[in-house]
Structure formats: C-alpha cells, structure tokens
Design a protein that fits this description.
Layout (H helix, E strand, L loop, with lengths): L1 E6 L2 E4 L4 E9 L6 E7 L6 E6 L6 E3 L7 E6 L4 E6 L8 E8 L8 E2 L3 E6 L1
Parallel strand pairs: 2-11
Antiparallel strand pairs: 1-3, 3-8, 4-5, 4-9, 5-6, 7-8, 9-10, 9-11
C-alpha cells in the first residue's frame, strides 16, 4: 500500500512557474513508476508525465514537453513536477499516481492539488 499526498498547487499568472510535490508513504516507493495526471473542469483526466522507478524512463504529454520536468527523490520518497511557462490551459487539478506495472496501470492515487493559471 502506498499513500500519496500532493502539494504545491496554487494561483499563478501565465508565464509563471510552480513546483508540485508528491509525498509518499508506505513501502517500496522506489519500485513504483510515478505519474502525474490532470483534470480540467468538464474534461477527462489526462496524462501529463511519468518517471520510472530508477528514473531511466521519462515520458511527457506533447502539451507539456519543454515546459514541465518530472523528477523523483527515492531517499525522500517524493516525486516532483516542475512546471514552467504556465499557460491558462494548464489550469486543472493535478494528481500523482503510483504504478506497479511500469505505468500501464496506476494502482494508487493522491487526492489532487489545484493549479490555476490566470491570463
């Protein structure tokens, strides 16, 4: 069992930056792939980025490539999403999730943190 808690969301102007954190508790964090997802009002949840257990495989959605950076600290059992050059269309609730199977299915989810980007 893994518990995930996101933090770092807030209100920022377009062009600004935020860093989201995903603090984990429970065993075996280092064996999980961690993903970030987001859901905007009236839209389906979408994939943002993922990082494998050893950080050797990192993937991004096309919409955030070059602006967002995913990372993890297996000592602090925390994952991060650095978001730069934010746009109003990045406004959403952001969730982190943990996958036992390399990202094909996510087994555990956090409660989400709101990111609002004003124009």
């Amino acid at each position: 069992q893994v518990q995930l808690v996101e933090s770092g969301g807030g209100l920022v102007q377009a062009g600004g930056s935020l860093r989201l954190s995903c603090a984990a508790s429970g065993r075996a964090f280092t064996t999980y792939t961690i993903g970030w997802f987001r859901q905007a009002p009236g839209k389906e949840r979408e994939f943002v980025a993922s990082i494998s257990s050893g950080a050797s495989r990192i993937y991004y959605a096309d919409s955030v490539k070059g602006r967002f950076t995913i990372s993890r600290d297996n000592v602090k059992i925390t994952a991060y999403l650095q978001m730069n050059t934010l746009k109003p269309e990045d406004t959403a609730v952001y969730y982190c999730a943990a996958s036992l199977v390399g990202g094909s299915k996510y087994n555990y989810w956090g409660q989400g943190t709101q990111v609002t980007v004003s124009s």
